[in-house]
Amino acid sequence: MIAMFLGLIRPLATSKTLTYVAGLALLVGAYSLLPIWLEYSVFHDVNDTPSQFHGVLSLVLGLLLVFRTNTAYSRWWEARILWGSLVNACRNLGLKLTSIDGLSPESATRAMDLIVAFPVALRCHLRSDCDDETRDRLQSLVGKPNHIPQAIAAELYAMVWDAKRSGRIDGDELRVLDSELLRLMDICGGCERILKTRIVKSYRIFARQCVGIFLGSLPWALVHDFKIWTLPFTIITAYFMLGLETVAEHVETPFGYDEDDLDLESLCGTIDATVRETFDRHALAT
Prior knowledge:
Number of strands: 0
Keywords: Cell membrane, Ion transport, Membrane, Transmembrane, Transmembrane helix, Transport
Membrane topology: Multi-pass membrane protein
GO cellular component, one term: plasma membrane
Shape: elongated
Low-confidence stretches: none
Radius of gyration: 27 Å
Structural class: mainly alpha
Mean pLDDT: 86
Helix content: over 70%
Distance between the termini: 60 Å
Oligomer: single chain
Main location: membrane
Pfam family, one: Bestrophin_2
């Protein structure tokens, strides 16, 4: 029982998002002290807010938050599916290149470097941020284009077409490789769509306004029946209401550095390790 309780409380100290939400909930709780004070003072007749109004508002807010949360999570999940597809595409491309054996050792090494660089370049592209070491490594491969993931895909295409023109691979093998190369830019385009097409701003503002009105009227609707217990009930309700809105705000943009965002570094590391293993195994076999 104690372990379960600690499991519920510990995230408040370790999660930046939940700590932020808890702070906002405490502020709403402090606001609820006003109607509580009025209820216990000579001005207790001032508050005559009908509870029915708050009941109707809670129904509307519930519908808004359900839509808001589902829409935000669907964006996060689609982003995860795209990056899972990128892991598979890079692995399959490495397997097909080494199985066809239509590249020279030097070309194979460059192909490996380009494949493992693509997810790193896409990560930097989506975040509009890149450390100096990573930027230098990417520029050493493709120079300084405006769209580095596209430039890497173009280099891979050029290598494959060069192998076709020189007769090292045939038309069937070209089509096999093209199917994986095509997926790279399809995944990049899907991620860019998620990044640049957020939920309509007016809807986000509308949902926040509804949450604000709900929490602003909540303690006034509770205080007649719950008296001093209005304080904890308001804090708990505010915590979950604000938490849903805050988490939705975070997960609808899943490519950043927040704790709820995708772990792109880990996914890039997975691709790097498995693709290099494929090429290293092929080099040892030959």
